[in-house]
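lol ok so funny story. i was supposed to be doing the assay writeup but got distracted and ended up predicting the structure for this chain instead. priorities right. anyway since i did it might as well share w the group, maybe its usefull for someone
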Amino acid sequence: MQTIPTTSNQREQEILRELRLAGGLSRVSFLADRLGVSDETIRRNIKSLAARSLVRKVHGGVLLAQSLTVTEQPFQLRMDQNAAIKQRLAQKVAEMIVDGDSLFLDIGSTTAYVAMALRNHQNLYIVTNSLAVSHALATRNNNRIFFAGGELRPHDGGAFGANAINFIRRFNVRYAIFSIGAINADVGFMLHDIQEADLSSEAAARAQTRIIIADSSKFGQRAPIAVEDPSQFDLLITDQAPGDDISAMLTENSISTVLPEP
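and the output, tada:
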């Protein structure tokens, strides 16, 4: 059987995961042994991670950056966090959408609140890989739901993989609405999962207006996967104006910030 090669991004995810399991600090030789590669390969990956401030090199090993969250919390727990703020942000998005609009919604908890805020809209044309979005909007008000195929992940009810991406490629929508794991001035937008990043890029390429919806707790945080090309997004809908550093990143990428009414 032919072995599928591990990409650099996949190995970096594995290194971050092993660091978290090891309590945040590990020797290079331990990581090499765990991942079945040479010490030099691990050092190259660590250099790449350190350049993005995801880890710090220390004598004889590597230390996980304190602001990095490697894995997301379970979906239902995220639904309960900052719920009132997420509802306000979701309502702001819903005000932008009119009956009959076409849109893509991803698997995030904030995006699930957007779906709930849209339950009185009619004739929506919705593309999604989220079971929560489908459950909120299917069989209501003559909506049409197109669900990306693939195995449903147990921790968030999202469908991913080659089949899901190929499905997304067949659509062109007015709005694509995305959640995000972290927003950082140096890197831009970040996610916890490379599959999410790949699918988000495909969906963004097939929308007229690309919206990120995120509460301000994501400002200044880091996650393992950088979303390629922040300039592919048009709007950031959030609850507080970001600081100067993140504002500069948004301006550089021609992204407008939208705040809900107080």
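The longest strand covers residues 207-213. The radius of gyration is 19 Å.
back to the writeup now i swear
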